[in-house]
Design goal:
With about 575 residues, this protein is an alpha/beta fold. The protein folds into three domains: about 120 residues, Phosphohistidine domain (Glucose Oxidase, domain 1); about 120 residues, Enzyme I, Chain A, domain 2, CATH 1.10.274.10; about 300 residues, TIM Barrel, CATH 3.20.20.60. It contains 23 helices and 16 strands. The strands form two sheets. An eight-stranded mixed beta sheet has the order 1-8-7-3-4-5-6-2. An eight-stranded parallel beta sheet has the order 15-14-13-12-11-10-9-16. α1 runs antiparallel to α2, α1 crosses α5 and α4 runs antiparallel to α5. It is globular, with a radius of gyration of 25 Å. It starts with a strand and ends in a 5-residue tail after the last helix. It binds phosphoenolpyruvate and magnesium ion (MG). Magnesium ion (MG) binds next to α18.
Amino acid sequence: MTFALHGLAVSPGIAIGHAHLVSHATMEVAQYQVRERDVEAELARFDAALTTVQTELVLLKTEAEASPGAAAELSAFVDLQSMFLADPLLVDAPRELIRARRCNAEWALVQQMEHLTDQFDEMEDAYLRERKQDIVQVVERILKVLLGKSRKITRRKGADDDDLIIVAHDLSPADTIQFKQLKIGGFVTDLGGATSHTAIVARSLAIPAVVGLHHARPMLRDDDLLIIDGTRGVLIVDPDARVLEEYRLRKSEMELERNKLKRLKSARAITLDDVEISLVANIELPQDIDKVKEVGAAGIGLFRTEFLFMNRDELPGEDEQFEAYRSVVKALPGKPVTIRTLDLGADKQARALRGAERMEPNPALGLRAIRYCLAEPQVFLAQLRAILRASQYGKIRMLIPMLAHAHEIEQSLEMIEQAKAQLRESRTKFDENIEVGGMIEIPAAALALGPFLKRLQFLSIGTNDLIQYTLAIDRTDEAVAHLYEPLHPAVLRLVALTIERSERAGLPVAVCGEMAGDASLTRLLLGMGLRQFSMHPSQLLEVKQQILRSDFSRLRAKVARLLRFDDAAQVREQLVSLDG
Ligand code: PEP
Ligand code: MG
């Protein structure tokens, strides 16, 4: 039976294919029986996982106690988890299931967890009912260890290239980046927000995606025929022949449009009144360079280097990073390559990093990006040296994410000087005049721009986080996705203010958040005076088309008026007045 589900449109286009269900990372585990002679080994595997989690918790507790800022709740929370871990009710019953019924360890554990949580559900006391979550979390920890690594997404044998639609409860950016090798037709998830990094990776791959569908996964089966309408945020399940035909037609029309845009590849990005605009690309991995060249981007405005650190057990060493950065700059002779230093944390996690197992009370506000790097100087210095070493092969610029304080700028610059001194000592060449820029993605930075203008050579506005932090909306949470509003007057004023002040100070400024790649906002940003846009290669030609049709100076006057509105709905209504 045909039915449709509605979610958030995060990556435009149409995909038609068959469902490939991906298990929830922890809760849907394989269920099988081990051989009689393997029962002891299975028990040992279970016990070893318990010991590992126990060690993790002890470590976590020591760290919580050692750091003066750590909330007392964290320590109490760890105690509670340790208590459950030692509770025979949780750990003895699975042992019995392994022994008596030869269940694999994961399955045995999940069965007992379900048995216990059912009992918690029936409790009258709300406090006790909530403890159910603690059990689930400790079980998730054990399962993570039992399952080893983060899940690996693979294609089933026999599936056609464009015929695979991933259906998942949730996907992390680390999951999604694997799609680069897998030729996925599209994906849908129950959770997620429009500017989560998962959605960003989908856009960079130009694969249609819908997130925030709530209950799609439990309603679908492997191999169901699906249509993703990534432009409208709709998933159609089991379409009839007529609907299928209509979508096939729409899909080929869209491909035709895309092909037409290719004619703009070598056109200069210049407005009707002769203002030259620089259109540069965002990349996640060196292999994205082919797409960058395909659309004729003027360089790289944002290399999200943290993706080099994901899906692996060990950190990439300095040499490996150096090779990655060098390969990018050598592939674009004469063009600037802006390498952003590590922005791990929040939804971008790398298990290889020290402290990755630490549970943060609020990761988006936690030890993310430059905060992490300044806390882990050896990791930071290795990256800085790798970037500096690559700088002798072309024009590399360094970009520091998540700066808010003047002292963070100073500390970052000191670390760069330290890395330079180390290289000088070993007589390694690098660009002595490498430019260092800062991202403006925290409202505090946009409002207190002085130190940024004084100490840095360029700025790049990260609207994804700027919106998140201005409006207090977690960009990955579909429950508040409707409040994530790029056109909120507060956001627009912060962007406009940053551009205006940078312009007055003579400092180059770009926008590298998702707003820069949204062709419906090109004129708005031009009207704020923006001259550099950084976006996924898949969006670049559409933005260029808008630029070629725009009059820079006329837009400035119109946008100044628009910035006076106090309501995003009014701004949206007035956007059309910028056309023509
Ligand atoms: C941003 O915040 O707008 C940005 C470009 O950085 P990221 O999306 O990687 O956080
Ligand atoms: Mg950001």
